[in-house]
Design goal:
The complex is a heterodimer of chains A (107) and B (122). By secondary structure, chain A is an all-beta fold. Helices cover 0% and strands 50% of the residues of chain A. Chain B starts with a strand and ends with a strand. The chains are: A mainly beta (107), B mainly beta (122).
Chain lengths: 107, 122
């Protein structure tokens, strides 16, 4: 199965700063890559699909990039509601697999 | 609006089975796969499988084959996931989520249920 590796595990960022999260796949998933945000006690919420397409209601400060095995999620100016855990997920191969997550915390 | 509402928390003894339901509304039930994803405490999500509500067919992660049964009742727009022979390693929050029927390019999870906590303890 494809292993998804996210880095860093924790990112400490000040409000208003830029955050860049990485996701690496153990083999190519083309652009079949989604990003989810999960706040404490809540279900994950789709942010990005197709590596770079924002889902409905995803603010423009979120952007995704990459293809093949290397992907990034960038939050251009962190707002208070953005402090959460972010997961990448590939849907190009079976079984679908998630990364271990990056926690974005307040610096 | 789109809603996926799951059944309540369960406590099971090792070796038992657990069945979680996912009642949907706000969209055409047979136009979207229902996926099952679990998340153990402090861990990332783990994809278990998906069911096509139109055909009843599905895909299961090899890890769960023989232990997970996914079914649906189209008359009440509800999907079910049953996990048998549970152990403490199955303690997790179980989520249902949907993706649009069609090609690989559409298989991202755009709406999720609220989750069902399953605790396995003797």
């Amino acid at each position: 199965e494809i292993v998804m590796t996210q880095s860093p595990a924790t990112l400490s960022v000040s409000p208003g700063d830029r955050a860049t999260l990485s996701c690496r796949a153990s083999q190519s998933v083309s652009r079949y890559l989604a990003w989810y945000q999960q706040r404490p006690g809540q279900a994950p919420r789709l942010l990005i699909f197709g590596a770079s397409t924002r889902a409905t209601n995803t603010p423009a400060r979120f952007s995704g990039g990459g293809s093949g095995t290397e992907f990034t999620l960038t939050i251009s100016s962190l707002q208070s509601e953005d402090f959460a855990v972010y997961y990448c997920q590939q849907y190009g191969d079976w079984p679908r697999t998630f990364g271990g997550g990056t926690r974005v915390e307040i610096k | 609006q789109v809603q996926l509402v799951q059944s309540g928390a369960e406590v099971k003894k090792p070796g038992a089975s657990v069945k979680v339901s996912c009642e949907t509304s706000g969209y055409t039930f047979t136009a979207y796969y229902i996926h099952w994803v679990r998340q153990a405490p402090g861990q990332g999500p783990e994809w278990m499988g998906r069911i096509n509500p139109e055909s009843g067919g599905g895909n299961l992660a090899q890890k769960f084959q023989g232990r997970v049964t996914m079914t649906r009742d189209t008359s009440i727009r509800t999907a079910y996931m049953e996990l048998s022979s549970v152990t403490s390693d199955d303690t997790a929050v179980y989520y249902c989520a949907r993706s649009l029927l069609g090609s690989y390019s559409l298989d991202y999870l755009d709406s999720w249920g609220q989750g069902t906590l399953v605790t396995v303890s003797s």
